[in-house]
Amino acid sequence: MTLKTALALLTILLNLPMQALSIGSFETTGYYKNFSVAIDPAKFPDTEHDLTGFMNNRLRLNVSFAPEEWFSFHVAYDFSPRIQDRAFSESAFQFPSIDPLSYRAFDFDSKLYPSNGEEMKSFAIHHNLDRALITLVTKNADIFLGRQAIAWGSARAVNPTDVVAPYTFDELDVEDRIGVDAFRIRIPIGALGELDNGYIFGDEFDFDESAFFSRCKLYIARSDVTALLLGFRESFLVGVDVARSLGGAGVWIEAAHVFTGALNSNERDSGEDYFRATVGCDYSFTGKAYGFIEYHINSAGATDPEEYLGRFSKPAYADGAVYLMGRHYLVPGLMLQPTPLFTLDAQALWNLLDPSILIAPMLEYNIAENIYISGGAFIGFGKMPHRDAGEMQDSSTAFRSEFGSYPDVYFASLRIYF
């Protein structure tokens, strides 16, 4: 898709409500966001760059059309001009990430400018057709077909059952989940339960790149209890999620065991199976203070920092959306709202075995109706990477801790909703 075509699509989305007000219910919403980000790579040995960064602008339009009560259609399109230091794209600043577009049967090139084959410059334009969803509401079930958000889990920071399109802890913009291509049917069970089944399409509908799931949610003994069976990338996940209120606090446990290669008996290696779980609680101390704490265990991770890099070739990281390199983590969080317009949020992700910690403070101010400004950082503390002076000069950097190897990230943002 060319830049000219993308601009034409943007114009059509803006004009759709005026063209169809007489034939159904239309709703148009959206937002503009600006993220200005500075990255300090000083922790990397022999780096040739000082402070670097980028500025990303994101315009999102959401259009919903419901000609009948039983039928609706939803489209969301992102248009994102981006300015960045060329050193950012040319350098080897590599830290864990998850491919958010891996569960799409087909898609256009996410980069409008420069085109494929052209040299990457300081200016680029990205775009994303993030929703294209048909919803059918029947007496016995709700049916969803197309590009949509699919996410599970009650944990606050790390969700073991959410492997389709999760966010990492240091993701800047987590307001909208990335859309995936799927067919989904939800069947109510009583007043508070449901049976949720679906198929998520991978690249070119290839089964080995796709996923399928069956999820049952029930209300039992004053608890929300969810069981999940998920087949993905030839592996099979069995998950459970239990959340309830206890003594004025909220408590939860979310766990998943993955049998890697279980859908391909020829390549089955039980030694690659892994287990992840998160247990936590939260509490509202007053109307102006909220806190939570979680413990996360990740059996796919390593106990020795020297083994961290080798983990990324494992199925848990290549196919299972695991990105944390260690085994045991503690995640505390606190949110304060001294005035209705001002919010202070602070979280931390602590690798208990390194030990290393990633802290994430953020300030937000609502300067006018539907307009917000914020600023924050992701700052890692721990032993920094190093190179040996002798035999390892030509090899990759050796890690001595997880978050000591993360570059420090500082950001400011502006959000306008309409």
Label this structure with key terms.
418 residues; mainly beta; Porin; 18-stranded antiparallel barrel; 19 strands
Identify the CATH architecture: Beta Barrel
Distance between the termini: 27 Å
CATH topology: Porin
Number of helices, where a helix is a run of at least 4 consecutive DSSP H or I residues: 3
Instruction: Give me the CATH superfamily.
Output: Porin
Can you lay out the helices and strands and say which pair or pack?
Blueprint: H1 3-20, E1 25-40, E2 52-68, E3 71-84, H2 86-90, E4 111-113, E5 123-137, E6 142-148, E7 180-189, E8 193-200, E9 211-220, E10 223-232, E11 235-246, E12 249-259, E13 274-286, E14 289-298, H3 315-318, E15 328-339, E16 342-351, E17 356-368, E18 371-381, E19 408-417
Antiparallel strand pairs: 1-2, 1-19, 2-3, 3-5, 4-5, 5-6, 6-7, 7-8, 8-9, 9-10, 10-11, 11-12, 12-13, 13-14, 14-15, 15-16, 16-17, 17-18, 18-19
Description:
- This protein is mainly beta.
- The chain has a single domain (3-417), classed as Beta Barrel (Porin), CATH 2.40.160.
- Helices cover 6% and strands 51% of the residues.
- It has helices at 3-20, 86-90, 315-318; strands at residues 25-40, 52-68, 71-84, 111-113, 123-137, 142-148, 180-189, 193-200, 211-220, 223-232, 235-246, 249-259, 274-286, 289-298, 328-339, 342-351, 356-368, 371-381, 408-417.
- It has an 18-stranded antiparallel barrel.
- A hairpin with a 2-residue loop joins strand 10 (223-232) and strand 11.
- The longest helix has 18 residues, at 3-20.
- The radius of gyration is 23 Å and the shape is globular.
- The model has no long low-confidence stretch (mean pLDDT 89).
